[in-house]
Amino acid sequence: MFYFIIDILGTIAFAISGVLVAMDKRLDAFGVFIIAFVTAVGGGTLRDLLIGIKPVGWLNAPMHLLIIVITVLLAIIFVKQLKYVRKSLFLFDTIGIGLYTMVGVEKGLAADLPPVMCIALGTITACFGGVIRDILCNEIPVIFRKEIYATVCILGGLVYFLLIQFPIQNTIAYSMAIVTIIIMRILAVRFKISLPNIYREKT
Amino acid sequence: MFYFIIDILGTIAFAISGVLVAMDKRLDAFGVFIIAFVTAVGGGTLRDLLIGIKPVGWLNAPMHLLIIVITVLLAIIFVKQLKYVRKSLFLFDTIGIGLYTMVGVEKGLAADLPPVMCIALGTITACFGGVIRDILCNEIPVIFRKEIYATVCILGGLVYFLLIQFPIQNTIAYSMAIVTIIIMRILAVRFKISLPNIYREKT
Amino acid sequence: MFYFIIDILGTIAFAISGVLVAMDKRLDAFGVFIIAFVTAVGGGTLRDLLIGIKPVGWLNAPMHLLIIVITVLLAIIFVKQLKYVRKSLFLFDTIGIGLYTMVGVEKGLAADLPPVMCIALGTITACFGGVIRDILCNEIPVIFRKEIYATVCILGGLVYFLLIQFPIQNTIAYSMAIVTIIIMRILAVRFKISLPNIYREKT
């Protein structure tokens, strides 16, 4: 139940981020909906395709579709008011990223893949909806330029695989990895931590 | 046989739309061919990937490949004359969209997916070749900005699922859905119907 | 063993080409890594998805991932020195293209696909990593505009299917196709051969 609520809140936060990018590009209602949908389910879809899970998850999740439709309608109507809930959105988004990373890690484990690939799949689940969103909107994905949440997902995955080396329950390791991702992301945004600059000249 | 002819005409119309966009971007012959090919088969390919049909359809359809190769060659040679057949092209394109929508719906039904997802797959089949075409040409997909044919596909799918609630033959419902899509699209283009504007300020 | 070394050298050359494009766009370290990774494994991934091989190859190749990580780190550090090894890189890249084309052809044969589709899959394996790289970097793929290596891959595939009509060993036909691709590409680059211009007006 708890898991279910996080999933819904994360889906809503992801969909809203899609609506904002799409409206910025002045897409029509259909375009806004597709971008919101892709942002919310794109990462999981790419993961399912890579692993070979068929059909991809969302084809059997009409409720997610419904939630995204409602979210898009409300977001379009109340777009001006969205700024007042920005903090809540950031929180849902961050919780969603933590959860989705571990969902991806789990799917990788279920497919008997090596740990490093499970972490990759977790990161793809959490981050590549945003990548597809940006590609469809004709932008270089923001995650490749300045956002750091991919790094946070990778670290969270590492924490999980470290913890399960110790005699602790799987669900505890799982939850601690999610919490690690959430805390690290909040700290990174608060203290404006980004990846070290790899360019010598000034940008 | 009838079905077969529509499929070929639709493929040709889709491929030509790809050629026109690609030549507008001044791609070389290989680029023009790939864009034409992707426009023609991209929607069905994405659908097959999402459902998990393997291999994707076109890998077993060398004839489609041949038709697209010939279409591209002719379209490059007679590009200046293409404007004289614009109305025929629009008609083939529209018939193709109607047919492909229902092909996608059928594949979804064959995979035991819920009606709303079958409609989604129908729309993807008919419309996402054009989306991939625009992405490869570095444009925001035209269907997200002003074209309305996705909406028409969704409505056509709805008509089908409404009709099969009644005691009528499946093939009749199927054909009526296709005809609905064709008529709605022609009307929409003729009367310049578009989705309601979702932006308050002027664009 | 020989095959293995070529594969590694090709992966390194592809990854470096990704690093160069990504650094040109001033992506951050994570972005540079993803672009390098996608350039190296994207073509094979797309091929595996289209055929329905699951999971896609790289999910079971942690060594490739490691090699790409090391390549990216070294390439970022020694980016200024890369120009001194440009000729070696071109050679590795060309050998990689030859090899990957035939790997793709083989996977197509193993999936019982018609020769023309095997050639298509070979070309996709060799060339579409670069296509995805360019899309993620918000560029029209260079291969659609001026590079000719797709054509070279197609010709190499044709050579293979011609040769196996004759009573010669499969491995010989395989190797000769690879050598054909390598020689043709070197000649094409040396003599600046490109596809015939399809536009009447000057560009």
Distance between the termini of chain A: 47 Å
- The shape of chain A is globular
Helix content of chain A: over 70%
Order of helices and strands of chain A: HHHHHHH
Tell me the Rg of chain A in angstroms. 17 Å
Number of helices of chain A: 7
Task: Summarize the largest interface: chains and residue counts.
Answer: A-B, 28 and 32 residues
Oligomer: homotrimer
- What does the largest sheet of chain A look like? none
Instruction: Let me know the number of strands of chain A.
Output: 0
The class by helix and strand makeup of chain A works out as mainly alpha
Supply database-style keywords.
homotrimer, 203 residues, mainly alpha, 7 helices, 71% helix
Description:
The structure is a homotrimer of 203-residue chains. Chain A has one domain. Chain A contains 7 helices and no strands. Chain A has helices at 2-24, 29-51, 62-77, 86-110, 115-136, 149-163, 170-190. The B-C interface holds B 22-23, 25-32, 34-35, 45, 49, 52-56, 59-60, 62, 65, 76, 135-138 and C 49-52, 108, 111, 113-114, 116-117, 120-121, 131, 135, 138-141, 143-146, 148, 150-151, 194-199, 203.
Secondary-structure topology with pairs:
Three copies of one chain form a homotrimer.
Chain A lengths: L1 H23 L4 H23 L10 H16 L8 H25 L4 H22 L12 H15 L6 H21 L13
Task: Write a brief structural summary.
Three copies of one chain form a homotrimer. Chain A is mainly alpha-helical and 203 residues long.
